[in-house]
Amino acid sequence: MTTEILISLITLIVLEIVLGIDNIIFISILSDKLPAEKRKKARLVGLSLALVTRLILLAGISWIMKLDKTLFTVSGIDFSGKDLILIVGGLFLLYKSNKEIFEKTEDEHPEKPFIYKSFSKIIGQIIILDLVFSIDSIITAVGLVDELWVMYTAVIVSISIMMMVAGAISDFISKHPSLKILALCFLMMIGITLIAEGLAFHIPKQYIYFSMAFSFLVNVIQIRKTAK
């Protein structure tokens, strides 16, 4: 354990948590479709699956590295396995986010009872997104450090922290409908970013995180003003 490795470990843990916030938001929104007594279980199962997925992908790290190899070219754009996964995941995020926003703004009526989704259906959707977020997370880890044990440690620590805060984040989003819509808009933005990445158009992450942080700050100020 050298100072350089320690710094890399801490940096990777922070990055994994930042990348995992998207996952937490999506899991929180999906778990709200379940009865109250099953929501915590869904969050824990979802994040546990995210941990298992990341560890399995790390174990097959040589296969992950091959995902960056070009499979075919269309109109001068090279497509790799990673690109295809990002594009499909981005389209899925756009579809789900738009569907959720429509249901919460246009398709909800006081006389219409809330219909709970099945636990297995929710977990199935979480698994799909876990795979997309895991690919991005693991490739980030591979690009940042060389030691496999550092990657394993960072993934385990980051997912453990996410499990501890997932409940608080979920409750906070559930109590404030405007934050739920904002979170869904964030997911739409992430979906567009994933598609852009898959099409070899790289959007600097700091622009995405700054816009999200600014929008969240404005929303929190509005909530506090309304509360007063």
From TrEMBL:
The chain crosses the membrane at residues 6-30, 42-65, 122-143, 149-169, 181-201, 207-223. It is a multi-pass membrane protein. Its main location: membrane. InterPro entries: Integral_membrane_TerC (IPR005496). It is found in: Membrane. Keywords: Membrane, Transmembrane, Transmembrane helix. GO terms for cellular component: membrane. It holds the Pfam family TerC. PANTHER family: MEMBRANE BOUND PREDICTED REDOX MODULATOR, SLL1022 PROTEIN. Belongs to the TerC family. This is Putative tellurium resistance membrane protein TerC. It comes from Arcicella rosea.
